[in-house]
Structure formats: structure tokens, C-alpha cells
Amino acid sequence: MSVHLRSIQTLVPGTSLEQSAVRDIFAAQPDLSRLARRLVATSFDGAGVQTRHTVLDELDLTATVPEPKFYDRTAGTLLAPGTGLRNDVYAREADRLFTGVAQRSLDADPDISASDITHVVTVSCTGFHAPGPDYAIVRALGLSPDVQRYHLGFMGCYAAMPALRAAAQFCRADPDAVVLVASVELCTLHLRSSDDPDTIIASSLFADGAAAALVTSRELPSGVAGFTLDGFHTGLIPQGEQAMAWTIGDSGFEMVLSTRVPQLIGENIEAGLDGLWSGDAEVAQSRPSRPLAEIVQHWAIHPGGRSILDRVQERLGLTDRQLHPAREVLRTCGNMSSATVLFVLKRILEHEGARAGERVAAMAFGPGLTAESALLTVAGSGDAG
Fold first, then answer.
1. Mean pLDDT of all residues in the chain?
2. SS3 of residue 224 by DSSP
3. Which residues have a Cβ under 8 Å from the Cβ of 193 and sit 6 or more positions away?
4. Which CATH number fits domain 226-379: 1.10.10.10, 3.40.47.10, 3.40.50.300, 3.65.10.10?
5. Backbone angles phi and psi of 242, in degrees to 5
6. Could you report the per-residue pLDDT of 88-126, keeping only the tens digit for each?
7. DSSP characters over 27-42
8. Taking a C-beta distance cutoff of 8 angstroms, is the pair 366, 156 a contact?
9. Is residue 183 within 8 Å of residue 190, measured between CB atoms?
10. Are strands 252-257 and 244-249 parallel, antiparallel or unpaired?
11. For 361, which of 32, 104, 310, 327 is 20 to 30 Å away at the CA?
12. What is the pLDDT of residue 381?
């Protein structure tokens, strides 16, 4: 039984940030040491990011904000609101993005309507509230109240992968199932000024974004561009447990993103993918005689940062073209945590010449250090140009 991933849609908040402007704001903070100012310049300029998006209108340099909570433009100072205030903004803005991107996914599919949805799986690690986004989607989209709802919270950047795996399992258990998967991350709510190198690196990368898609094994009449979900694999890099972490502090959520992460991923990526390749007969039979870059034509790598992409490309022998979709998402949108890999998959379908039958490897990394991967096949009408 084939399980299909279709109608991938994305959404970003309306406030766009130029990386150079954000760099200058962070570098100008009065509490920074001279060394930290240099690290801000190095991290922001070398991140591979040109623009990012945020739900914080205060960071729009053209907006008038009478009572700023996050950024005092007059003083040029980044403020330090408490976790409660940050989470209040999350509860309001995340639900708007969850329902908006979920509706886009439904609207994009000519064969699936609200009444077809049997399961909703939502993903987020940047805030909490209940009733949560799964409930908001059911109410806003007019889904049946008996839709099964699941929320994957606080798993970090890799969480869209177990969400897709769970959706595929639902569909294999019930051939009539149609699962709506939606991810929203509002990472900019937790950016802060700090001398800490891990915090500076995180501030140079993270952004806000939303993505949604439909998963089903139903045979539907329209050749909607998408993928078949062929297999999944989870890997752990135990020596990286302290290198990437996500905790709740009094002034927002706190990210640990060590400079060791790219090296750890590079050293372990080949072994970490062995289980994915061995589970697929076509790839397993081809590997002894052909390089991976030929067997698997497209690579949806979560762009956790430019250095991570560089290490993965080097160790797996991938071409610049194969890394292009990940680098372009990083350049134009930054790292949107769990939503990002769906942005990359959408770009592969729409801009990277993907053709039906071609194989796709998707992977994302997160706290643990956890590496989640999936093997897919292009289905429907991908971009031929």
C-alpha cells in the first residue's frame, strides 16, 4: 500500500527581516562584550541567511509601537519579556498560522475536502496552550468533531518527520484515513541578547514559519504533485546530547546550539543513514556500485545552519544542485525549526526539476542529538523545468 504526501503548503508572517539589519541591532546591544560583538558579526554574516520572517511587528523598523515589549526602537535596546508574555503572543499568533496554512493545504487539493479529514497531527516546540492548535484547526476549518487529534510538542527541529511517520502509520492501519499534518514555529519569540556563543548562533539563524500537508493512501483521481512516503529511520548521536538542547527559562525558551553540532553530524551522518538505505530494496541493491548522489536524486536536508549543510554535502558526496533547495530555504526564510523540512520538500517539487519516480531523501536534526530521516519518491506532476 502506497502512502502519499500531497498538497504541501507554506506560510510566513508578514514582517520580513533583513539579516544585516538584525545583525546591527544585536551588535549594538549595550550589554555585549567586545568579543561578543565580533561573534555577532561573524555568526550573522556567515549564517547563509539573507531574510527571515517574524510575528513581532515591533521588529518592523517602519512600524509605530507605543508600548514595546520586545524591542525599544528609541533606545535601540532588545527587551527581555518573561516567558508568560512570550507564550501569550505564541498562543495568539500560532493558531492564526496553524489554521491559515492548514486551510491552504486543503484548498490546494482538488480531491480532498474538510469532511474527508480523519486525523490532525500538529507540531510545535516554541509555545504551549490548551486547547491547542489541533483544536483550533478542527474548529476553524469545520472538520468533524470526532477527528482524531495529536500534538507533537517540544521535540525541536526534527519533529515534522515523526509527524509524517505517524500519519503514514495511520494510513496503513486505515486505508480510508486522510491525515492533515501542520507545523508552526515562532522561534523569534525567544531571541535574546547575550554574550553566550550558543545563544548568538541561534539568534543568527532562527525564524518563524508554518507548513502543512495531507497524507493519505486513498487512490485519488487528480495527479497532484507530491511524494510517496517509502520509509523512515531514527538515529541518535549520543555524544551530542549536550550539544543541542531546548529548555524553558524565566525569559523565554533557551536554545543550546553548540559549534560542535556540524562536526558531530558530519562524523555520524553516513552511519546514521544506514538503516534508511537497508530498508529499501532499490537503494540497498544499488549502493555497492553507485554513489548515493546518483541513486537518490533529491535531498531535503533541514538547513540547521550553513555549516551543517556543508558537512552533510561533503560527507555524502552531494552536488551543489542537490543542496540548492535547502540553501535557498535557509537564505530566504532562515531556520524555522520543525516546519523547515516541509519548505524544502515543497521547493523540490516546484523549483528543482523533480520528476515522477525520482527518489528523495529527507533528514532533520534536533535535540538529543537526534537525526530523523525519510525516503520518498516523487509522485504526480512535479516540475519538469
1. 94
2. coil
3. 26, 29, 31, 32, 78
4. 3.40.47.10
5. -95, 0
6. 999 999 999 999 999 999 999 999 999 999 999 999 999
7. HT-TT--HHHHHHHHH
8. yes
9. no
10. antiparallel
11. 104
12. 59
For residue 331, the surrounding DSSP H or E stretch is helix 320-333
- At position 80, the amino acid (one-letter code) is A
Average pLDDT rounded to a whole number, residues 139-163: 97
Q: Which residues contact 65 (CB under 8 A, 6 or more apart)?
A: 57, 58, 73
If one counts every other C-beta atom within 10 angstroms of the C-beta of residue 321, the result is 13
Q: Pull the grid cell for residue 195.
A: 554574550
| C-beta of residue 365 within 8 angstroms of C-beta of residue 335 | no
Q: Which of 165-174's residues contact partners 24+ apart within 8 Å by CB, and which partners?
A: 165/229, 165/232, 165/374, 166/121, 167/3, 167/119, 167/121, 167/215, 168/3, 168/215, 168/229, 168/232, 170/118, 170/119, 170/215, 171/1, 171/3, 171/215, 171/216, 171/217, 172/1, 172/3, 172/217, 174/118
- Produce one character per residue of 333-363: b if its CB has 16 or more CB atoms within 10 Å, e if not: bbbbbbbbbbbbbbbbbeebebeeebbbbbb
Can you give the pLDDT at residue 66?
Answer: 85
**What does the radius of gyration of the chain's CA atoms come to, in whole angstroms?**
20
Q: Cell digits for 173?
A: 492501519
Q: Using alpha carbons only, give the angle 160, 232, 127 rounded to the nearest 5 degrees.
A: 15
pTM: 0.96
CA nearest to 163, candidates 120, 127, 132, 131: 120
The three-point CA angle 356-362-365 to 5° equals: 170
> Residue 224 carries which side chain, given as an amino acid letter?
V
Distance of alpha carbon 379 from alpha carbon 139, whole angstroms = 31
Residue 4's identity, in one-letter code, is H
Which pLDDT score is estimated for 110?
Answer: 96
